[in-house]
């Protein structure tokens, strides 16, 4: 199964389930119509049965048609556990989640979270499952503590995320992640044909390093990590430009956008520079 993917021969364990399902079962069906009491147990039972059929019968057909290189460990109730080649994992989660959103009539309060855990094919699945559970808990960390807000279950403010590569990504942003990944693959292949075009694997490795530094700054506010910006600028000037011009204009447009840091970080960079000048 690992050999059927692209890139390195790794597998990915995908876990997913519906967010806040207990609360939805208890409270989410009560206020559909203010003038009627619609909290009968039959409505909750109907909802439960529909979810069961979606995560079991529909999922099997979906995988068979769109992602045949996937092994189902468990799918039913409101959750799933799948194994697929690592290169297929994010696309699978994104496409399945879109189907679930459609099934839920795009109700912003009914959403799922997922974790993607990469592993080598000889790793015991029991161990991988333990790691996946930890990743799943990261995907389900609350963004807002205001549980009394009318928007507290809204997918924009609540979970509705995927934890992949040690990073929590909103499901709505998975399309961008896939697009950028495909773009990097395209550029790296282009660079193999013509070293003056595209992006080399060395630059991509540097970009991963700098993105981790950026993440560390945003999470821990360690100002030393702001060095990612001048390091990336140096890497771009050395590897992607000549005489102040980008060798590949498409690549240049992408990296110019990457270098546009937020105002707060830019101001902080200015303060650091001033402090150095004072010293």
Distance between the termini: 59 Å
Strand content: 5-15%
What's the total count of β strands? 8
What percentage of residues falls in helices of 4 or more residues? 40-55%
Low-confidence stretches: none
Structural class of the helices, strands and pairings?
alpha+beta
| Computed Rg | 23 Å
Shape: globular
The overall pLDDT, averaged over residues, is 85
Count of alpha and pi helical runs: 9
Strand order of the largest sheet: 2-3-1-4-5-6
What is the succession of H and E elements?
A: EHHEEHEHEEHHHEEHH
Main sheet attributes: strand count, strand direction, barrel closure: 6 strands, mixed
Describe the structure.
This protein is an alpha+beta fold and 279 residues long. The protein is 52% helix and 15% strand. The strands form 2 sheets. Strands 2-3-1-4-5-6 form a 6-stranded mixed sheet, sandwiched between helices. β2 and β3 form a beta hairpin. The longest helix is centred in the N-terminal third of the chain and has 26 residues.
In short:
The chain has helices at residues 21-27, 41-66, 86-103, 125-139, 174-193, 201-220, 228-239, 249-258, 263-278; strands at residues 11-18, 71-76, 79-85, 112-119, 161-164, 167-170, 241-242, 245-246.
Question: Any key phrases for this structure?
Answer:
single chain, two-stranded antiparallel sheet, 279 residues, 9 helices, alpha+beta, globular, 6-stranded mixed β-sheet
